[in-house]
Amino acid sequence: MNRLAGLTGYCGETAELRIAAAAIHRGEEPPVTGLGGSGTIFITGCTLGCKFCQNRQISQEGMGSLVNHDEFVRICLDLQDAGAENINIVTGSHSIPGIASGAELARKQGLFIPVLWNSSSYENVSALDLLKDTVSVYLPDLKTLDSGIAKQYFNAEDYPETAAKAIIKMIDSRELRFGEPRTKDSLGKPISAPDEIHHETVIQSGVIIRHLVLPGYLESTKNVLRWFADHAQGRALLSLMTQYTPVYQNKEQSDLLIPGRYVDEREYECVLRWLEEYGIDDGFYQELVPSDDWLPDFSRHNPFSSELSRTIWHYHREQIAESK
After folding, report:
1. CATH code of 110's domain
2. Which domain holds residue 315?
3. Bond into 190 cis (ω within 30)
């Protein structure tokens, strides 16, 4: 589609950038959260159609509002001023040109913290070239290497080969490097965080590959772990996620999407054994805590739990500063 001419692609978006929310978020991996939290910017639209997307309000239902380059820059700088360790662009694959130019402009206006690319990996390599001077850290998903699962649940049968190529490109372009977390915000105010989410170092460059375990599809996870051991071990970190939550498609919760349950204890233990079997020890894995308490609701000013998030900007066009 010629989105520059106002047409919409599969993502449901034109070439104009739309954003749902921006927040200091403390629910990411420890070196992403650091001390100050991650400055997450949630982009409206998505190149995939995941049937159990936790962010479907913004990825599939169009929640968000248009922002121009000046407003995007202001959002980035406001997050930095609030003490964010990084600018974490969430699901921006369909808006790479606009985001890349916006981030470059933000750099010229004083943005000094790393920019993170948090995506599904459903991106072609030439598109990623547009980010080479903008992004320091990549947080790609590797959802599956099974084309049948990709077609059934993500609406993209070619996802496995596309994502694998994209992730290799990311790994080849950025080496792992860490630094000290921020201790003060831009006004000189000390940054504090609960001990359980404080991390001594923050990632400045490199790749963290995320994989969500799907209940009932352990063979898919095993293949992903094998791929990581063969292609990424020692060059990237792994983030193994067990937070899969059955998501209902409507408010009446009458149309439960499959898989319709949480990961169970047996599956969890099996996956941990595979980590040992493949010698994967660089990265993180979640504790098994079946719950939907963490699911976001982007119709609220603070989409997440107040313990996890502090909203800086919301698509209602209201600037929210907790300190004011």
Report:
1. 3.20.20.70
2. 17-319
3. no
9 found inside a domain? no
Dump strand ranges (E) for the chain. 18-25, 38-43, 65-66, 87-90, 115-119, 137-140, 177-179, 202-212, 237-241, 283-285, 309-314, 318-319
| Residue listed under structure tokens 């989105």 | 3
The single-letter code of the amino acid at 241 is M
pLDDT in tens, 209-246: 999 999 999 999 999 999 999 999 999 999 999 999 88
Query: pTM value?
Result: 0.92
Q: Choose among 62, 71, 70: nearest CA to 94.
A: 62
Token couple for 193? 């965080």
DSSP per-residue letters across 53-122:
-TTHHHHTS---EE--HHHHHHHHHHHHHTT-S-EEEES-GGGHHHHHHHHHHHHHTT--SPEEEEE-S-
